[in-house]
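Q: I'm building a small set of examples for a reading group on sequence design. Run inverse folding on the following structure and report the sequence directly after it, with nothing in between.
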């Protein structure tokens, strides 16, 4: 009886463990200082596990910084990720021309990913959005408009993935950049 309980606990913990893949990753902490995990979730598309996502927020009460880290479970080209990003921006209301322009910029910086690899985006006011691949900074895009559109893919109320949005937000509010006061 005792062995079966241990087995059940091990299986449950094993099933949950892949969802939260990092606590205060050093590259995010280096940009934001003290952080806390606000929420985590998993994107499944047509039954396929695409990626796990973690949303981090600064711990200071008036913190405006936040970060999203994606751990991919499937291989994708950087261009495919950029194209999908532009399409998702359009679906939340970004003008086609602007979303296409940002998509082209992202296509020039986003790497191809393999299962288990991460891409993170960190927003810091007045600095913009910094992108990290496997913990190494690869680029930065200035502007709150870009950040609002990019992070809105997951956090805007018009997202195409409302279940993932709810998981990322947990019991908290979206960052002020996305929603204003909560």
């Amino acid at each position: 009886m005792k062995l079966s309980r241990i087995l059940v606990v091990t299986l449950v913990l094993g099933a949950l463990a892949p969802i939260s893949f990092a606590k205060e990753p050093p590259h995010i902490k280096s940009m934001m200082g003290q952080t806390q995990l606000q929420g985590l979730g998993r994107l499944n598309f047509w039954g396929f596990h695409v990626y796990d996502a973690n949303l981090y927020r600064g711990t200071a009460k008036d913190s405006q910084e936040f970060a999203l880290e994606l751990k991919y479970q499937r291989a994708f080209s950087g261009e495919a990720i950029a194209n999908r990003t532009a399409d998702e921006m359009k679906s939340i209301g970004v003008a086609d021309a602007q979303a296409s322009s940002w998509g082209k910029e992202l296509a020039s910086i986003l790497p191809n990913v393999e299962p288990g690899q991460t891409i993170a985006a960190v927003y810091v006011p007045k600095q913009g959005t910094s992108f990290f691949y496997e913990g190494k900074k690869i680029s930065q895009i200035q502007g709150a408009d870009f950040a609002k559109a990019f992070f809105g893919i997951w956090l805007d109320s018009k997202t195409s993935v409302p279940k993932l949005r709810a998981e990322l937000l947990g019991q908290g509010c979206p960052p002020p950049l996305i929603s204003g006061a909560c």
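The CA atoms of residues 42 and 52 lie 4 Å apart.
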